[in-house]
Each structure stands twice: as C-alpha cells, then as structure tokens.
Amino acid sequence: MAFDAWVALLVLALVLGLLVFTRIAADLVLMGGLTLLMVIPVPVGGQWSLGVLSVSEALSGLSNPGLVTVGVLFIVVAGLCETGGVDWLGQRLLGRPRTLVGAQLRLMGPVVGLSAFLNNTPVVAMLIPAVADWAKKLRMSASKLMLPLSYAAILGGTCTLIGTSTNLVVNGLVLAETDLPGLRLRMFDITWLGVPCALVGVGYVLLVSRWLLPDRQPVMSRMRDPREYTVEMLVEPDSSLVGKSIEQAGLRHLPGMYLMEIDRRDEVLVAVGSEQRLEANDRLVFVGVVESVKDLQKIRGLKPATDQVFKLEAPRYQRSLVEAVVSNTCPLAGKSIRQGRFRSVYNAAVIAVARNGERIRAKIGDIVLRPGDTLLMEAPASFAAQQRNSRDFFLVSTMEDSAPRRHDKAWIAMVILAAMIAVVTLEWLSMVVTAMLAAGLMIMTRCCSANTARRNVDWPLLVVIAAALGIGRALDKTGAARIIAETLLRIGGDDPWIALAVVYGLTMLFTEVITNNAAAALMFPIALATAERLGVNFMPFVVALMLGASASFATPLGYQTNLMVYGPGGYRFSDYLKIGIPLNLLMWLTTATLAPLIWPF
Length: 601
Description:
Oligomer: single chain
Low-confidence stretches: 219-224
Strand content: 5-15%
Mean pLDDT: 82
Structural class: alpha+beta
Strand order of the largest sheet: 5-4-6-3-7
Distance between the termini: 33 Å
Radius of gyration: 28 Å
Number of domains: 3
Largest sheet: 5 strands, antiparallel
Helix content: 40-55%
C-alpha cells in the first residue's frame, strides 16, 4: 500500500478515535482531520509534495449537491415551523401514545412508508422539529426518538427503487453496463428484500432502544424554574378549539404548565377536568414556566387576553417573548401597568408577571409593578437591544423561537412542501434544485423571513458533511479503500454465499466512513467482477450493494439523516455505535441470507 494511502487511513483512525473517546465537537474533529490531509507531506514522482489532498479536492465537499440540499431544507423547515405547518403535521401523524414503545411505533411506521416513496432527507428534516415538540409534550427524552426517526427513514428508503438516492445511483451503474442483458431493475424489485429488512430493523429498535439509547432530558425537565407566570389566553370565536374538550385541544398535558381555571361570562370554572368543553371567548388562566408559555403562543386559536398585544406597532410575527426584571429606578415602579401606560412608553405588552414565587391573581393591567418583578412581554425584535443598557430594567433577554405562528400562511407552506415532494418524486427536477426553489418560495411568500432562514441553518452540521466528504475523497484518491476491498474479497474463495457476505460487509464499512453514494460507486465494479469470476447471477450482488450502501446505522457520518438528528437528539458518537453496530450486523445477516433465496445464484 502506498505511503499516501497509509496517511489517509491513519488520519481516518485518528478522527474516529477522537469522535468515540472524546467530547470534542464533531465539526472541529473532522475539519482538523481534513486539514491534516492537506498539510502532511507525501512522496509524488520521487519528490515530496504537501498534502494527500489539494485544497480544491479537500473543499470539494462544500459544493456537493447533498450538502446544499440539506442546507436549503433547513429553510423549508423554517417556513413550516413559522407558519405552524409542522405543528399540524405532528398532530395528524403522531397522536398521543402512552408508552415509549408506542411512541416509537407511531413514529417509525409512517416514516418507513413515507421514505419508501419520498426522498428521506426532506422527510427527516420536516419531522425533526415536530418530533422535538412531541417529545416535550409526552415528557419523553428526544434522544429516545430522534435516532429511531433517522433509522426508519433509512429502512423505508431500502423498500423501493426511488426510496433513496443510493438505489438510483446503483441502478444507473447497472444501466451503464451494456453487457448485462436482461438485468433491469423495476420499481418494486428491491421490495422483496427491503420490506423484510425494514420489519426486522423496526422490531430491533422497538425491542432494544429502551436500554441502548440514552435518556438525556433537557435542562428544564431536571430543574424547576422558580419563575412561574400566570398567563391568560383567550379562545378566539372562529377557532377550531371551540367545542373541543381540554384533552382534545391538547391543553391537558402541557409540560411545565397547567390550566388553573376558565373565566366564562363572569363565571369562574376551577379544577377544570379533561372533558370540559371550550367555548368562544373563554379566558383560560394558565400557570407555568416561560418555556411552556412559548408553547401556548404556538397554539392556533389562542391569543393573549390582553388587548395591548394587538396595539403594538410591529406585526405579531415580527415579535418575540422578552423577559426583563424591573429595576428600583424604573419610573413605572409603584404604578399599575395600565396607569403607567407601559405599552406606550416601551412599545411592549406585558402578558405575565412573576414575583418571588407569589401568584398574582389580578388582571394584567391592574398589577402594580415593584422592583424585582420579572416581566414577560411580547415585544418587537429590537426591544432587547434598545433596553439592554437601560436603567429601567435588569437582565433583559429574548426567548428563542417564541414568535407567534403565522397560521394564515400555513396553507402556503404546506402547498410548497407538497409541490417540492411531487416534483422530486416525478423526477422533473433534481433534489437540490427543487429544494432551492422551495426555500426561495418560503422566503418570497413570507412564510419565513430572511433573518429567520439564516438563523435556522445548522452551519456546524454542514461543516461536518463537507469535511466527511473530503476525508472520503482521500480514501478514494489514494486507493486505500479499493486495496482493502480487493484483499478482503479473496477470503470468499469460490463460495458465492461468502463472497456476497463480504461484498455487503465491505459496502457497509465504507458507507460508515466515506458516505453511501461513494461506497456504492466504489464497490460496484468490485461486486460485478466477483460475480463474473464466480459465474453466478449478478442480481443478489446488486441488491446487497443497495442495502449495504443505504443501511448505515453505526456512525453519524454514513448517512446524512443520522447527522441531522445528531444535535437535536443530544447524541454522542458512541451512542450510534451502541445501537447501530448490532443493527448493522442484523441487516448484514438478513440480506446475506435472503438475497440468494429471492434471486438464486
């Protein structure tokens, strides 16, 4: 093996070691490895040259269509979130299961079905925020659901020819081989093996995830926030909540908050039961922490009971929730909110007040402000910057993701999403072009603002994908991957069963470190040569190649959906190894056993 190939393998080993045994951020580790590949001297033509990869080769991943697709899909998802489209999808698709296994089954079943016919990357991108909110409402850890979401999308993609780009890449390579008469893959040829693999994979996750997936609760669930707010929300007359019970409206199990009473036409209903029906103009009094107040802001059909919110200058979708502590020099201290004309003075509307754990039962406008009161306000985005150095308030902070939803534009966002999926499925345009058009339409139709779009792109994730593509390029360029594959294939000898198992195993291994499409392209000629040498049917090798290149579960690097859930699930690299290695081995055994039975050698 050449010196540069050894360098590539050593850098790969170093990167994987740091990811497994340290908590250094993945983007720093991978970019560090890529930098080493550009600066370590290697012999070229009898002379020493700087770097296994040139600068252009190392950074070529930045222009990869897959990376661009993931980046712009974050903007599409931002549009769905800002309009409440994700909330609607979550309610319709996920429901309210009572157990962890029930929740995982409710999640994985539909995702497998969707990913069989849709590109799994937008499916996962669309569902990540919905699953995060769903986990919070169910009081479950998102780390118990995010990897099952990714795995279900991967398994669903193996069920049809269009389920994943890898299947299409392999089919394109098959069509390019003109000396393979009669070997043409149809839409559901792979389904005979893909469905059993999906059933085995889903069953495995449901069985073992309780023990092998981490249970990482967010900080809010571990620490009780001492600031409890009393918030009044009004049921709008034309709301879909009218006539629904508290349970049906999703107001019964809000994390960190409970419905204390309903004020209805001068009658106060206390100890509200889950079957109590809502009526138009009901004033709902909630008690809870600020994180849950954010959730109330997102529910369609509820609005703050104070009219001051609707007299502010900026449109509601341009505002957010802001917390601030009243200082002892605030000119409004000692006055009621109404008497001090708070909205006129600060262009902000107070929607709740917290005071040393004391529950304030007065109407918002009648509350007399005291130094030390914590105010929860709805205010324009500029409020925090304007008041941060003011002597009127201490500790001014803006709540992330607290802007009210633009429900009036939800249908536009849903139409854009449906059109994007249809165009990709019918192959009218490539995935990257379609996603860019959809992202542009989200901004043009004001489903999300340009600032929101920029803020929602996960830049560290894009760095990880680009760096991983660069490292995979080094393994391919130096010939290290091909040398390893050809060496290990000799183990199979003349037994086609063993040769098939080795082809799958190598494809699976390369997928984990050099991405799925690169692994499929690398292994295709090797698999073809192996089948020709043994004089057997090439079809089992084709299908094994598709499954091995798609079914990547053991690292976040092998498949982009695994990377996409890395941050939202709060995972570490070792979490993927614990649950993913056994699943990889299970898929290996299932494919190597069933493929020759379905397509005999």
